[in-house]
């Protein structure tokens, strides 16, 4: 049992845990128990409860965590590692402690730096996927897109993250669909490829965002996009706007769930970008396994 | 009493009415009784109730209306006038009817066309302010910014609207402050000029919007903007992003409430734009009075 351990991605809204044996997943958990749902910062008690089926069998399993659990609002405030950041820097910056029930635990730091637009930028959790991507597909340089609530575009060199920029694509999409005039009084939505493609094409025209999105209203008024396809059109606008920032001359990876990466692959066909999809969970587990092996090396 | 009439701006969320005598305001009403608050499309009953103090004294006052009251969701679906559109076109396109209590009524159409970014665009209500602006400040050409939930930038030539573009500045600001991660867990906000200016300057750097706004998170994390100044910073980002689309070589008018135009004037100082503020209500009343005089001319 000595090679069993638990890998955890603990974010603001979700909690995911994997039980591993020799780095193979033998069980997993996914609960809507993100940091916001933890009462009065009782992180240890919450974790013990979530992991109880596994801990009952093996009480002191080592636990390696990443994500917002290491932020100001999380269990431990783990200072960001600075760019450029590789596996060694993340290991060096990790927070080591013992849980009340006796498990050795590590929280891996996030990364901060300056985006390619000169803005301060931060990530927590995606750095693990980036390490995993490099381990799975070794190369001198990587350009990786990690779509999501806050999409990240990262460049890596010799396995180190050298810069990254955040795009609030997923959060803006959700706000515009659910809370804005653009999403008001819509019928049941039906996914529609042509409307998605139309959105991607429209966004490629270098139109300012706050004007661009109003077309989801006017195209509907004019009958160019059906009311039940507005979410597809908006998704195309948002993803197209994000991809317009990527140099089409450089092949890139897109890391995430198959449902999400499929949209980016479809948009890339329209914009002429060469994208290759990689499963986000596989990258996360591979990246955390890499850190786990560093921990074992350095602490044995 | 024959020169008494009622001017109404009836929008989605607000209702405003002015009682005029010889085009001077002698009374006014402002109620949160926009179209969304009218039950079962009982617009006539709602209007009669809202105007009852004035109608009691003079039952058949003529009523001239503009705004979303002329939309699909409004009292009458009045087709848009097309660009280029001047006072004559708006008069020609207006919907004339008699209210159940015997007032002659007109609803002035909105305007549709193609924005300077090639997108379909629409306005309802702002066209009245534009006519009023030209009447108050005659010139061959006007560039006018009408800030708001959906800001409009319009160009006029010889008193006709020749093109316009919508920017969803106000709605995005509200969504980001109230519903997004950027506005979460903020203390009581305090207006702060330096944070506003910093936002305007940051937005002038041609940074993609979905990345730009994330700086409201990272600048707070880094301590560059205090938590109680985040709304000021976001306001600067949003207005700066909108103004970055305006050619600094062309003087422009900004039409709106003093509170709102003051922000645009402050931002224009930062970006080097020459802006002159004009009161939005004055423009609205002047524009609607112009249409009222056309109505009187053509129907007498």
Describe the protein's architecture and organization.
The structure is a homodimer of 300-residue chains. The first copy, chain A, is 37% helix and 25% strand. Chain A is built from 11 helices and 14 strands. The first copy, chain A, has helices spanning 43-50, 52-57, 87-92, 126-136, 169-179, 193-203, 209-212, 215-221, 230-243, 258-271, 280-299; strands at 4-10, 15-21, 24-31, 63-66, 81-82, 95-98, 104-107, 111-114, 120-123, 141-146, 151-157, 160-167, 252-256, 275-279. In chain A, the strands form 3 sheets. A 6-stranded mixed β-sheet of chain A has the order 3-2-1-4-7-6, covered by helices on one side. A 5-stranded mixed β-sheet of chain A has the order 12-11-10-13-14, sandwiched between helices. A 3-stranded mixed β-sheet of chain A has the order 5-8-9, with no helix packed on it. The longest helix of chain A is centred in the C-terminal third of the chain and has 20 residues, at 280-299. Chains A and B meet through strand 9, strand 12, helix 5, helix 7 and helix 8 of A and strand 9, strand 12, helix 5, helix 7 and helix 8 of B. Chains A, B: This is 2-dehydro-3-deoxygalactonokinase. Chains A, B: Its EC number is 2.7.1.58. Chains A, B: Keywords: Kinase, Transferase.
């Amino acid at each position: 049992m000595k090679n069993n351990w638990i890998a955890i991605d603990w974010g603001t809204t979700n909690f995911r845990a994997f039980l591993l044996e020799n780095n193979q997943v033998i069980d997993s958990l996914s609960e809507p128990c993100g940091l916001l749902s933890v009462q009065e910062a009782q992180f240890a008690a919450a974790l013990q409860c979530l992991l109880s089926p596994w801990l009952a069998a093996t009480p002191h399993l080592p636990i390696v965590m990443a994500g917002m659990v290491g932020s100001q609002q999380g269990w431990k405030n783990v200072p960001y590692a600075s760019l450029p950041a590789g596996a060694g820097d993340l290991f060096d910056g990790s927070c080591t402690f013992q849980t009340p029930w006796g498990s050795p635990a590590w929280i891996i730091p996030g990364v901060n730096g300056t985006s390619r637009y000169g803005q301060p930028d931060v990530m927590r959790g995606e750095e693990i996927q980036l390490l995993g991507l490099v381990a799975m597909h070794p190369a001198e340089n990587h350009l990786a897109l990690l779509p999501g609530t806050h999409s990240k575009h990262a460049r890596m060199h010799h396995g180190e993250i050298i810069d990254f920029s955040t795009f609030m694509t997923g959060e803006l999409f959700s706000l515009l669909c659910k809370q804005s005039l653009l999403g008001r009084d819509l019928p049941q939505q039906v996914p529609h490829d042509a409307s998605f493609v139309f959105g991607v094409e429209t966004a490629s025209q270098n139109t300012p965002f706050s004007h661009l999105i109003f077309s989801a209203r006017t195209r509907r008024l004019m009958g160019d996009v059906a009311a039940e396809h507005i979410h597809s059109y908006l998704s195309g606008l948002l993803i197209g706007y994000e991809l317009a920032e990527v140099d089409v001359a450089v092949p890139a990876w897109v890391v995430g769930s198959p449902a999400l990466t499929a949209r980016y692959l479809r948009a890339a066909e329209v914009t002429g970008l060469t994208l290759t999809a990689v499963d986000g969970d596989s990258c996360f587990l591979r990246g955390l396994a890499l850190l786990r092996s560093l921990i074992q090396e350095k602490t044995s």
